[in-house]
TrEMBL record:
InterPro entries: Ice-binding_C. This is PEP-CTERM protein-sorting domain-containing protein. It comes from Roseateles depolymerans.
Length: 346
């Protein structure tokens, strides 16, 4: 598990905005500023010596983009396919990201490799003004709010060879990272700006079984600020995944597949303000927190729900398995590749 303190390298386009926020240098003596959003997707595939690298799709306003690629080729007695999809949406107070794909390789023939890659990234910068009937401008207050990030990252794969040999392998990887910062001090540690982050990765490969890194996420945060000054935040998230299957010999035959799926299309969102208290600790009521476009950040801002990803994942893995093993129907049942394959399938 890895906490992300302030690593914005993957969101280079938003770096001029994000770096000042990390160090608490953003001015707070102006009105709430207009939101700035970005979203982009990339998908690539490679089968033997053919590659598809379509241009990255991107928007610098609220909206959605997607990328998809698929290749299906033969080389001698080998048949390979690779496909990948990335989908991204960004709006006021939320991001929706999903990446999935897979690769298959089977038959007997020359050395060959297939692979697929997908990436979706989004960033959101916005500011809002906290106010209430009894709020006194210029005085210190503490706001407690929620940010939500829940999803899934999954990988799978299988490899069988005839005869039993080590000259083939597969790998599947999926990862998600997210970081959030606000231009206010942490109520629990005044020496630090308010911020949180998470990283989750899943790896499965032929010789090493599976690896899991579970997420860290600070769901509820508290910040000290001055009433009458806007609160600004930046939030950036990235999903990545890749699949690969390779054959390294012309001896015998093989069949392998790998697949990845990362789905955070429902739960990167601002969870609303829990409470605001003045400098004496008294609870302030009837809170509003409007941004420049009239969005009230006092409320939770979840995105529109999307279908449950489990069905998609089952379909993806099932299709990969069928495609990889279909050509083996007339062949004797191959043996799994030793103890390593057994451990990889655990």
């Amino acid at each position: 598990m890895t906490f992300i303190p302030c690593d914005m390298r993957r969101q280079a386009a938003a770096l001029p905005l994000l770096v000042p926020l990390c160090f608490g240098l953003v001015s707070t003596d102006v009105a709430a500023q207009a939101a700035i959003t970005t979203v982009s997707t990339t998908a690539t595939a490679s089968v033997f010596d053919e590659h598809q690298w379509p241009p990255t799709q991107s928007l610098d306003r609220p909206g959605s983009v997607s990328s998809h690629v698929a290749l299906d080729r033969q080389s001698g007695g080998l048949a390979g396919s690779a496909w990948a999809t990335a989908v991204g949406t960004v709006g006021y107070g939320h991001m929706q990201l999903r990446t999935f794909g897979g690769a298959t390789l089977d038959g007997a023939g020359p050395v060959g490799e297939v692979s697929a890659y997908a990436e979706a990234t989004a960033s959101l910068y916005d500011s809002f003004m906290v106010s209430c009937p009894t709020c006194v401008a210029g005085t210190e207050a503490t706001v407690t709010f929620r940010v939500r990030a829940e999803g899934t990252a999954a990988v799978d794969g299988r490899l069988v060879t005839t005869p039993d040999r080590a000259d083939a392998d597969f790998s599947a990887y999926s990862a998600v990272s997210s970081s959030f910062f606000m231009n206010a001090t942490d109520a629990n540690d005044p020496t630090q700006p308010v911020g949180t982050g998470m990283f989750q990765s899943e790896l499965r490969w032929h010789y090493g079984g599976s690896y899991h890194d579970r997420p860290i996420w600070g769901d509820t945060l508290s910040a000290r600020f001055i009433l009458g000054n806007p609160l600004s935040f930046s939030w950036s998230s990235t999903l990545q995944g890749n699949s690969r299957v390779a054959n390294y010999t012309e001896v015998g035959s093989m069949a392998g597949w790998s697949a990845f799926n990362a789905d955070y299309s429902s739960t990167f969102y601002w969870g609303g303000i829990v409470e605001v208290r003045d400098s004496s600790g008294a609870l302030l009521t009837d809170i509003t927190a409007f941004n420049d476009s009239g969005i009230n950040y006092a409320n939770a801002l979840p995105p529109t729900p999307v279908p449950e990803p489990a069905t998609l994942w089952l379909m993806l893995c099932g299709a990969a398995g069928v495609m990889a093993l279909a050509r083996w129907r007339r062949e004797p049942a191959p043996r799994a590749h030793g103890a390593n394959a057994a451990r990889g399938d655990a």
